[in-house]
């Protein structure tokens, strides 16, 4: 297991730093599905005790990113194709409604913030930041929905598939398509057309799902 670890001995929030570092490593694939996470090894890597490591792993388990089994320890979870499909279908339903609420409250400041996020996504060359910038764009718009519980569930669903979503963006034609679709969603929000924004958001998510599932099935069949 190799990824960038931080010396957290002097930090008052060691568990937070370990949690963020491990989550990012899982998202980027530096720590792969099925890989074991040993508390003693992690404590040594982060130059800390096992207590904050245990807390960080517990938080990762709450998000569904790892699982802990008796006698087997903690491993990074994986998703089947059917599970990936279900998460994307759920996202399409929920985010389609969130963007409808958001358009009802849309203002020029939000549009400008979303436009900047859209531009940053379109010009970014570091593939490691694609997932982050994709979220920035969508969240800039969703914030105006004023539905914090909805957004919490959206965030949890995205966390569950983040590593898969990044793979879809980088390894398929996802980046170019996402750029075009983001612009379409933004234009619908500018026009204050909530039904069009919802339709495009759902199509955007389901299109990414189809592309990712095709990629996963091709990879599985080639083994």
From TrEMBL:
PROSITE patterns: HTH_GNTR. SUPFAM superfamilies: GntR ligand-binding domain-like, Winged helix' DNA-binding domain. CDD domains: WHTH_GntR. InterPro entries: GntR_C, TF_FadR/GntR_C, Tscrpt_reg_HTH_GntR, WH-like_DNA-bd_sf, WH_DNA-bd_sf. This is Putative HTH-type transcriptional regulator in the TAR-I ttuE-ttuC' intergenic region. One of its GO terms (molecular function) is DNA binding. Pfam families: FCD, GntR. PANTHER family: TRANSCRIPTIONAL REGULATOR, GNTR FAMILY, TRANSCRIPTIONAL REGULATORY PROTEIN. Keywords: DNA-binding, Transcription, Transcription regulation. Residues 12-79 form the HTH gntR-type domain.
């Amino acid at each position: 297991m190799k990824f960038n670890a931080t010396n957290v001995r002097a930090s008052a929030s060691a568990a937070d730093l370990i949690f963020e570092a491990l989550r990012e490593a899982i998202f980027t694939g530096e720590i792969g599905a099925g890989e074991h996470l040993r508390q003693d090894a992690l404590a040594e890597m982060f130059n800390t005790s096992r207590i904050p490591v245990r807390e960080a792993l517990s938080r990762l388990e709450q998000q569904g990113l790892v699982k802990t089994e008796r006698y087997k320890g903690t491993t990074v979870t994986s998703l089947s194709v059917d599970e990936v499909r279900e998460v994307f279908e759920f996202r399409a339903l929920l985010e389609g409604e969130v963007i409808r609420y958001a358009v009802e409250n849309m203002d020029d400041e939000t549009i400008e913030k979303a436009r900047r996020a859209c531009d940053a996504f379109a010009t970014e060359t570091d593939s490691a930041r694609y997932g982050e910038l994709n979220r920035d764009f969508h969240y800039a718009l969703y914030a105006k929905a004023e539905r914090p519980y909805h957004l919490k569930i959206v965030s949890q669903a995205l966390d569950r598939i983040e590593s898969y979503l990044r793979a879809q963006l980088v390894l398929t034609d996802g980046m170019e398509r996402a750029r075009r679709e983001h612009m379409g969603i933004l234009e619908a929000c500018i026009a204050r057309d909530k039904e069009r924004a919802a339709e495009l958001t759902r199509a955007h998510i389901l299109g990414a799902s189809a592309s990712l599932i095709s990629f996963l099935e091709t990879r599985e069949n080639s083994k």
